[in-house]
Amino acid sequence: MLARLLQALGIAVVAVPAGGLLFFHMSGSHDSPLVPIAMSAARAPQTAMPYTIAAIIAARVELPENLETPQAEQTGAHLFRENCVQCHGAPGIAATVQGMTPAPPNLLRTGRRNDPAEVFSKIKNGIPGTAMPAWGDQIPDQSIWALAAFLHHYRGISADAFDALSTTEAEPGEGTH
Predict the structure, then answer these.
(1) Which terminus of the chain, N or C, has fewer Cβ atoms within 10 Å?
(2) Is 14 in the same domain as 100?
């Protein structure tokens, strides 16, 4: 199933040796260099590159122009409050869903990376092996990009600022449903 997903994204799966590494051609061409992906840190050689499937997919995603507009970020904040806070929490708001393994991360903590392309890919496709579902069939891409813009721009946001931004509905237009 993973091989089919990666092939659909134009990433050719080359080999899955017993050593626990997957090898991919990033460009989808057999002429490109092989990129090793460690599947098990305990079995991976020291030279393996620490790529994740989300990072591979994100590398194939083009960022929209003018991603972080105030309107898109406000839309993203509203969508985050409505759809994500239950599991991930927010400044001043505890997650209400408990007991997930692994526990959902605090996506708004200071210092978090939140690369927009990776965030988009994780929201759209979900994260295998976790409780993070794929939202791509429920939320339009433009709205997922708004979430990615919000999560990237507002890392470390205060509880008061989050409340103000996420409870005000964005004007219709860019970054909205």
Answers:
(1) N
(2) no
Please tell me the pTM assigned to this model: 0.66
* Nearest CA among 44, 80, 65, 84 for reference residue 154: 80
Q: Are 45 and 68 in contact (CB under 8 A)?
A: no
Minimal CA–CA distance to 109: which of 160, 143, 159, 53?
159
Cβ 139 vs Cβ 122: under 8 Å: no
**Domain of 114?**
70-167
Give the model confidence (pLDDT) of 66-119 as tens digits.
898 999 999 999 999 999 999 999 999 999 999 999 999 999 999 999 999 999
161 and 109, same domain (yes or no): yes
Q: Which residue has the tokens 């089919």?
A: 4
Same domain, 85 and 45: no
DSSP 79-136: HHHHHTHHHH-BTTB--S----SSPPP-TTSTT----HHHHHHHHHH--TTSS----T
